Amino acid sequence: MHCPFCRHPDSRVVDSRATDDGTAIRRRRQCPSCQRRFTTIEAASLTVVKRSGTTEPFSREKVLSGVRKACQGRPVTEDRLALLAQQVEESIRTAGAAEVEAHDVGVAVLAPLRDLDEVAYLRFASVYQAFDTLEDFAAAIAVLRAERDAGSGGTSGGDASTGDASTEGARAEEPAGRTT
Q1: In terms of domains, do 21 and 71 share one?
Q2: Does residue 120 fall inside a structural domain?
Q3: CB within 8 A of 161, min separation 6: which ones?
Q4: Distance from chain centroid for Cα 63
Q5: Tens digit of pLDDT per residue, the chain (180 long)?
Q6: Shared-domain flag, residues 30 and 96
Q7: In terms of domains, do 87 and 18 share one?
C-alpha cells in the first residue's frame, strides 16, 4: 500500500479492526519512510447482475429506497428500514459470492419485510413478483394467513391445510358482506 503522504511503496499495519457494522476492515498503517500514520478501509466488493446482464455495485441505499416505497404510509420507522437493509446485505454477503443476481436481492428482501409489515410485503411482492391479477394478490394473502395461523397455533393438530382453508374462506367472504 502506497503512503498517501510520501508515496513510499510500502507500509506496515499497526492495528486492524472490523468496522461497527462488520462489513469492512479498518487498518491503521504506518509508513516506514516518513513515519506518518494513515487509515485504510477494506471491504469485499459485491456486484449485482441485473436482468439485462449489466452489473453495478450493491447499494444498500437502493434496497432502502425500494423498501421505503413499499412502506409508504405504514407505521415503520427509518431505523427499522435501515436495520432491514442491513439484514438484507448481511444475508447476501454470507452467501460468499462476489456477484449476486438482482432476483436474489429481491428474494433476500421478502422475508424480513414480511416480518416487518405484511402490507408493505404485499406491495413489494406485487411489484417484484409481477402480480397481474387479483388472484395473484389473493394467493399471496392466503399464504400470509396460512403462515400466521401456523405460527400462532391456529390449528389443533390433524390436517392444517383444511383448517386454514376453511378460515380463509370465511375471511374472504366477510368484506363482501360489509359493502352492501
Answers
A1: no
A2: yes
A3: 146
A4: 7
A5: 889 999 999 999 999 998 876 778 999 999 999 999 999 998 878 899 998 999 999 999 999 999 999 999 999 999 999 999 999 998 898 887 889 999 899 989 999 999 999 999 999 988 888 888 889 889 989 988 888 888 765 444 444 333 333 333 333 333 333 343
A6: no
A7: no
